Amino acid sequence: MKNKIIFLGLSSFIIQGCSTFEGASFSDFKDALSGLTNQVTMLFTDNVIAFEPPPKSTLSGYESVILKSNIGSRNRVMRSIYEELSSSEIESDKYFKDVSFYSQGENVKPKTAVFDLKINDSIINREDFRENRFKCPGDKLVKSCDSSEAYQYTVSCYKLVASINGSYNINDHKMRVIDKDDFSFQTEEKSCEDSMSSKKNSSELKQMVEIKAGAEIAKKYIPKEVERPKDLIEKDDSLPKEVQNKMSSIYDMATDKGVSYAKKAYEALHEKFPNNATVKYNIAYCNLLLGNYETASSQFKSYLQVDSDHKDDAIKYLNESEDWLRKGVYKVNRN
Predict the structure, then answer these.
(1) Fewer Cβ in 10 A, N or C end of the chain?
(2) DSSP assignment, residue 141?
(3) What is the Cα–Cα distance from 119 to 77, expressed in whole angstroms?
(4) CA nearest 66: which of 115, 104, 117, 119?
(5) What is the pLDDT of residues 239-250, one digit of tens each?
(6) What is the distance between the alpha carbons of residues 278 and 270, in angstroms, rounded to a whole number?
(7) Which one is the CATH code of 225-326: 1.25.40.10, 3.30.460.10, 2.60.40.1080, 3.30.70.1170?
(8) Under 8 Å CB-to-CB from 302, ≥6 apart: which residues?
(9) What SS3 class is residue 287?
(10) C-alpha distances in angstroms, 96 versus 89, 167, 217, 315?
(11) Can you state the percent helix, strand and coil of the chain, rounding each to 5?
């Protein structure tokens, strides 16, 4: 059985060969397109940004973090950890009050954790190999032929693999170990002689794997941003017309400006309509999304005592809040 081979020279050139696009690199263009796609997706989905506790709760009880390593602070692994920890926020609130680099003889205060890393040098390994290619005869830009007509040839290729590994302890202010782990990360780059894309050199790959290592280590200890369904109640027919319009506006606000803004607006409505069950439910759900599990649990219980229109959702989210409480997580944001 013969297979059909189509050689798209033009497409190959456009995707792989163009190094610039209106003054920007093709990589920049792809990144911009990806970001635009994500924004457009958010416009057409009824999701909101929510916050979940860190995968590891080790630093949840600490306000500040000091970073130190066997090779000093001026290395990319440390800088990457610093950037992730210091920029971690829940809406506009910093997760850690302070993140800094260790100074010799520094007095470590209570509620401060010390991240102590042992980092081995990143290394590069190279693997050389050959790959088969098929090509249709002729000089046309777009060519089509049966597999029996195509001719085979080989090209030289290589793969660079950057690796880094090490270990770390996290200590309290009395230098008692509260967590420890080993780490190992890799980043690779493959290139063939017929590839028209830009190639990363060994130095660039080392930078990439070092930054990746720091980011992945830090992400274990900071809250996660996740997309959740916008399971807020948009309207309540029992309220005056102008208040219903306000409810719809707040509902949109949760996506456009953030859940914390919507929560404050619902709380303002609650002051005017303290017995309205819909407003109570929405405040509870906002607290769940913001990681205020103890508050959300109490509010969902309060809602279920006065209303049953959204009983199934309320029970589901009450159970989720209770699950976090059983794990000892009462509130993601410590502020």
Answers:
(1) N
(2) S
(3) 8
(4) 115
(5) 899 998 999 999
(6) 10
(7) 1.25.40.10
(8) 280, 284
(9) helix
(10) 8, 23, 16, 32
(11) 40, 30, 30
Superfamily of chain region 60-221: Lipoprotein like domain (3.30.160.150)
Write the Ramachandran bin of 167: left for phi over 0, alpha for psi from -120 to 50, otherwise beta.
beta
173: confidence class by pLDDT, cuts 50, 70, 90: very high
- pLDDT 10s digits, 9-56: 433 333 333 333 333 333 444 444 444 444 433 334 478 888 888 999
CB atoms within 10 A of CB 141: 12
CA distances from 18 to 25, 91, 194, 195 (A): 8, 39, 14, 12
Spatial neighbors of 87 by CB under 8 A, at least 6 apart, are none
Query: Is beta strand 123-135 parallel, antiparallel or unpaired with respect to 112-119?
Result: unpaired
User: Cα torsion at 17, 21, 25, 26 (round to 10°)?
Assistant: -50
**Lookup: tokens for 222:** 């900071």
Quote the pLDDT of residue 316: 93
> What does the radius of gyration of the chain's CA atoms come to, in whole angstroms?
27
| pLDDT over 70 (residue 329) | yes
Give the type of residue at 51: F
